[in-house]
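@channel sequence for tomorrow's demo:
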Amino acid sequence: MTTVKSQAHAALAKLRAALPMFAEQAGQYADAEAAVVRARRSRARRIAVGAALAVLPLALVGVLFAVRGGDTVPPPLTGTASPSPSVSAPAQVPPMPTQVPEPGPDVAALPRDRGVGPASLLRYDLTSEPGKVRADVLAGGSWYRTTFPNIRSGNPAELSPDGRWLLWPTPDGAVVRDLAGTAERVLPGALVVRWSPTGNWLLGYRGMSDRYSLYSVPDWTEFPAPAREAGWSISGVLDTGEVLRMADTGKGGKVGVEVVDPRTGAVRPLAVDISGSLRPAEGVRRRVVPLAAIHPTADGTAAIEVREESPAGSIVAFVQISVTDGRVVRRHDVPPAATPMSPNFLICYRGTELFWRGDDTINRRQGPDGAVTTVGLPPGRYRLPGCWSVF
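structure tokens (generated this afternoon):
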């Protein structure tokens, strides 16, 4: 009997050592073999339940994708936007094309049942179809065309900085079309918009109500921006979702900037002094709402336009500042025009890149002291992704 008891005790000890997760259950059984069988079954059930739970979210995504239909890829899994500042994974800004093909007379229609991918250039025509805008996007080396009513004489369409979203105005608001898929969405009332540097946020200006709204991309959650007694003045949006607005331009290069978080209502004043970066007959000229004179960049800085001090003074430089403490980082001079009668027409400032128009070319300089490259263009009116001006 003593031998049997000792053997059973030894077997239970081995069982507890081999199955520590089920040692307490094993000790409740007098028979060691039964304990092992019970423990194995319990462990198998746990594994099966865990596997089912792991597969469930993917199955739900598949069901939703099947119900939606039309998209070339399932929608991304995104959580609720956080009220605290956060930076999404940076989107890839498409490079400027080195060669621009002639669109030709028979441009393919922008498909409604599939995506064409990010676009590197937007070309549009306001005259071929009366009352309509004919917009062509260059994606993957090919042109694709869509048309929509022309409700304004200014910029009738634009691309997001990452080239994914094509946006155009309607009487009801801005329409955004996903070029990576087929989804379209209307942002009610939004007329003038500003993208964050990599396109993960959109700031919309509602002209009828004179207010701003911040939209997260790609779920388009809206955050109304807090009002300001003296108006919003000049605005831009960072990749953190925070909005920059110029409170005043002061004198002698002292600029008041406010960093606003529409999700929380927090306002952080930023005292900026760029007087040491100004040359004689230069200054910061206040511009009309909602045009931008402060330009956020993807590296957590922003640039303030420096203009000639004259009624029609052109931009001569950008002074780059930190949006953390307002300190000046450096000055970026705009290259001088070839002739005084043909001034450079600025297209876009991206922090590491500056674009401007020549006679029939786009000029690009990488970095403050980089080499200048040019690209010839077929006739037409163009816009680069995320850039504020037409050329």
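heads up for whoever presents: The two ends are 99 Å apart (CA to CA).
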